Amino acid sequence: MRDHFEVGRYDAAGRLGELTVPRAGVTVETPALLPVVNPHVQTIEPSTLASEFGAEILITNSYILHQSDDLREPAERQGLHELLDFPGAIMTDSGSFQLAEYGEIDVTTEEILAFQREIGSDIGTPVDIPTPPDVARERAESELATTQERLEIADGVDTGEMLTTAPIQGSTYPDLRERAAEHAHGTDLDVFPVGAVVPLMNEYRYDDLADVVAACKRGLGEDAPVHLFGAGHPMMFAMAVALGCDLFDSAAYALYARDGRYLTVRGTEHLDDMDYFPCSCPVCVEYEPADLRAMDDQRGEDLLARHNLHVTYGEIRTIKQAIRDGDLMELVDSRARAHPTMLDGYRTLLDHAEQLETTDRIAKDTVFHTSTESARRPEVVRHHQRLDRFDLSGSILLTEGERDEEYDESWQVTPPFGPYPREMSDAYPFTAEVPERLSPQAYETAADGVARLAECNPDATVTLAQFEWPESALARVPDSVTVRHLGED
């Protein structure tokens, strides 16, 4: 077990955790954002990240420092914390990004880990091979083998108190990602980044991203803190957290500001197209879009970067509160409406509902059934799985109406959950708030529950009494179940 990461509370696969970083002497609450700091050009000073934004951890690139004529010697002499003037934990990348961009770098895993330890990095990274999406399987397997060799090398390097990451590769092949995660988790390395996913996010392929993260999670233990490399847009944080990601590094706050782009949790706006700021962060309260446009480029860019970082940290806090309250999936549902591809990602996430259910809390506050997708949530999956716990015989009425004494037992049936004993009506999740006008999918899912109960209890005679269920739902009710239409009684 890894004793440097402790989970406090789950919602789906999202969790509130504590990552202890011994070399820095700090404990970072997760989910956590790691602002990317370019050691050459700092849009916002690292000390300001801590004082104004509450940053507990940041990430910078050790390869840039290693190759820099100006910064290498000061980094070695002063150490990263003094060089950057940052009191929290500092994670360093190894140059793998440069490898992906330019095809080669001139440093080995042993060399870069030794350098990271020397300059005082708190979390170091080996040189993995970032395999892009959609490559031939042969290439993905070959490059994964190289990454795994380098993880074995990293596992044998004496890094002292510095934690070391074990990047997970495998391109867009879920089985390779799962295998890579199992291998990484089998080492004594400490933090587990999901690598080479920036191209997926740049192309808005959130459905493929969900499959990649879910596969990685299947190969990891629950003691493994998961870092989603390069995930900087707050729009997708809630989905990634619900899948089980704990750490995010973002250069988007600065890169987007450089291009005059304004981040929101619903997408990105162009400053030139804005008349009003919809945000209440300090920047947006004090200034209007025209004010920033009238400033010199650097001043306007700095203020826009500050807004971008405020909204990004704000989303992390919103997610943490949602996990605490047990309504993370409602937040994911809401964020999924921001963009069609986010909805694709959410629907793909729900393809893994059985996986998410294994860590989802069994008791929360009221579930809100707010969309078609709500019928596929982990709570519904869990209820259907547990219908095999009932041993029924005789005549069983499953009804949307009142109890009928003509039957041996009379159960309630409510879309999307399906059948459940009346005694559980006041228990979670059957206290769910549902709209009057349900989607066909809610009824279809309820019908699946009816079929599951009938299948698990072949000696019982089951009757379903329902109000105007759509034909698509009734078609899923097995022939062994008698169907009554309550409006015709």
Automatic annotation (TrEMBL):
InterPro entries: ArchSynthase1/Queuine_TRR, TGT-like_sf, TgtA, tRNA_ribo_trans-like. It is an enzyme of class 2 (transferase). It comes from Halomicrobium mukohataei (strain ATCC 700874 / DSM 12286 / JCM 9738 / NCIMB 13541) (Haloarcula mukohataei). Its EC number is 2.4.2.48. One of its GO terms (cellular component) is cytoplasm. Residues 13-340 form the tRNA-guanine(15) transglycosylase-like domain. Its cofactor is Zn(2+). Pathway: tRNA modification; archaeosine-tRNA biosynthesis. GO terms for molecular function: pentosyltransferase activity; zinc ion binding. Exchanges the guanine residue with 7-cyano-7-deazaguanine (preQ0) at position 15 in the dihydrouridine loop (D-loop) of archaeal tRNAs. This is tRNA-guanine(15) transglycosylase. GO terms for biological process: tRNA wobble guanine modification. Keywords: Glycosyltransferase, Metal-binding, Transferase, tRNA processing, Zinc. Zn(2+) binds at residues 279, 281, 284.
